[in-house]
Amino acid sequence: MGELERARDKAIESHRATIDEAKSMLTRCDGEMVELYALVSELMLTKQWFLTDGVVWVVKLVHQSPELEKVVADLVNSVNAVGVNEGIKQGFQAAKDTIRSAEEVLRYDEGAKDVLDAAIKAFDNFHISVLGKVTDLVDKPLSVIKQMSERPIVKENY
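Given the sequence above, the corresponding structure tokens read:
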């Protein structure tokens, strides 16, 4: 009987150790679950912010970037010059009697079409440098990104 009791006590002790280990694992899992819940909540807040305020911020950065401003200004100026040239040509056609060629008309710009073509090419290829700085924020916490997005959009801040 003594041997049977010792075997039983040994089995009980082994089961208690297994139960204690399982309780410890459960406690660790509870802690990890709380951490994961916090991470998921932060990701949900990040997604919500990105889809509302974040996209607006990036669009403002693009809209107010010096690069976009320059290519749009160049494009507008060259379109205007080409339009003026076309108007001059049409006017020349109407006044053939007094002027020998359209190029003699004041403000005619023979290179305006080339400038427009260059402006269109620049618009197709322009790069917004500030967006590179936004991608530098990828590893920053949402609070830092939000703080950056609330600053005035000027070149010195980014």
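Helices lie at 2-63, 66-94, 112-125, 129-135, 142-150. Try to locate this feature in the token string yourself.
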